[in-house]
Amino acid sequence: MKKYLIYLMMATAVVIFGGACSPDEGNKPETPGIENPETPDESGGNPNTPGGNSKILVAYFSWGGTTQRMAEEIVRQTGADVFRIEPVTPYPTEYTPCTEVAREEKDNDARPAIADEVENWDDYDTVFIGCPVWWWTTPMIICTFSESYDFKGKTVVPFCTYASTYRDETLARIVELTSDAEHLTGEGLTSGRINEQNISSWLNEIGVIQ
Predict the structure, then answer these.
(1) How many domains is the chain partitioned into structurally?
(2) Dihedral of CA 109/115/120/124: which sign?
């Protein structure tokens, strides 16, 4: 009976914390991203980008790499510019301390400062905003980003990465935070489903590529 109770408590902990700081499938914690995200060259990006004159930005926060992989594939297929949302004070690189900081920020409705700013914001017509699911919703730094810019006249496309649950809630939260914008249907993927085909199908469905 004692062994059963221990296993039950361990399983409960995984469910509670799985959505905190680890969008990777199988609850494998992300590790800090070292490589910078790929950016399109100056030759004009992907020829499938609609309209020709429409300028796209992919803005994302990634604690350790999973959301970065999804963002990079979006950039590769659309020829978009990219902006990595980096906190002034980095999050802990270990899983448990990160969950504690993330929960404290959520409970206090915090707005973590962002280290840099988007250049030429007014030039962008479409903005993808992406993040992992932390404590059942967006990390609070996404609130900081969304409140830092004027989204009137822009189209926002939300995306997220997650371990097992709260995909739809997180996508809806990004829409809520950018209520002045128009919105296209977002996408959330687990780590194992981030690939060229899945992202291409989504981008085609919402008319961003053809």
Answers:
(1) 1
(2) negative
d(CA 158, CA 154): 13
Report yes or no: 206 and 183 within 8 Å, Cβ to Cβ.
no
Paired sense of beta strands 81-84 and 155-161, if any: unpaired
Note whether 136 and 162 are within 8 A (CB): no
pLDDT in tens, 13-64: 433 334 455 433 333 333 332 222 222 222 233 333 343 457 999 999 999 8
Residue 107 lies in a domain: yes
Q: Is residue 210 part of a domain?
A: no
Check if the beta carbon of residue 17 is closer than 8 Å to that of residue 59.
Answer: no
Look at residue 76 and tell me if it is in a domain. yes
The CATH number linked to 171 is 3.40.50.360
For residue 26, is it within any domain?
yes
Domain residues for the domain of 20 are: 2-205
CA–CA distance, 170 with 20 (Å, rounded to integer): 12
8 A C-beta contact, residue 105 and residue 92: no
Q: 114 pairs with which residues across the strands?
A: 87
> Which residues have CB under 8 Å from 176's CB, separation 6+?
none
Are 208 and 50 in contact, with CB atoms under 8 Å apart? yes
Positive or negative, the CA dihedral 197, 74, 21, 133 is: negative
